[in-house]
Amino acid sequence: MKVLKDNVITLEFKVYDNDTNELLEDTKEVGPFFYIHGEGQFVPVVEETLEGKDKGFKTTIMISPEEGYGHYDEELVQEMAREDFAEFDDIYEGMPFVADMDDDTERDYTIKSIDGDVIIVDGNHPFADRNLRFEVEITDIREATPEELEHGHVHFQGFEDDCDCCND
């Protein structure tokens, strides 16, 4: 089976800052990465490189900020009030969270600092402004189920109860 649109792809990868050689992410530490190919769920240049490849394929892909996570945008660093976090049991520096935006989209943020009632958050991806090197290996390929395609994400056998969209 090949990497084609609507197939579930399982990857192992390491991501390095290509300028400093700093290891930024390693799936060996957090588990493999799964995505539905061709649905815009991963870095486009990686998906393009993997298109048509087979299980076991390994490659190294260089990614500029423009091709990856963009340039750092100071406007995505914002001040919020502690009361904006009332729904959270605990907040801490480095905590990731998802915010609903005015245009009905969502944006990932990270708490950068907490000073009393003032919380500084950053909506930039941690890899923004970096030249990256992805060392990628395709470890599995399978057809996505009709439910996965309908829901727009990979399901894991036995874990569907954790999927909010699957508990309707």
Q: Any overview of this molecule?
A:
This protein is mostly beta strands and 168 residues long. Helix content is 10%, strand content 37%. It has two domains: 7-69 and 127-166, Chitinase A, domain 3; 74-122, Thrombin, subunit H, CATH 2.40.10. It has helices at 27-30, 44-50, 146-151; strands spanning 7-17, 23-26, 33-36, 58-63, 77-81, 96-100, 106-115, 118-122, 132-143. The longest helix has 7 residues, at 44-50.
* DSSP summary, beta strand count: 9
CATH fold description of the largest domain: Chitinase A, domain 3
Q: Which shape, going by the Cα principal axes?
A: globular
* Integer average pLDDT: 91
User: Largest beta sheet, briefly?
Assistant: 5 strands, antiparallel
Please provide the ordered H/E string of secondary-structure elements: EEHEHEEEEEEH
Q: Structural class, from helix and strand content?
A: mainly beta
Task: Tell me the CATH architecture of the largest domain.
Answer: Roll
Tally of contiguous helical segments: 3
* Approximate helicity band: 10-25%
Radius of gyration: 18 Å
Distance between the termini: 33 Å
CATH class of the largest domain: Alpha Beta
The tally of structural domains comes to 2
Model regions low in confidence, pLDDT < 50 over at least 5 residues: none
Strand content: 35-45%
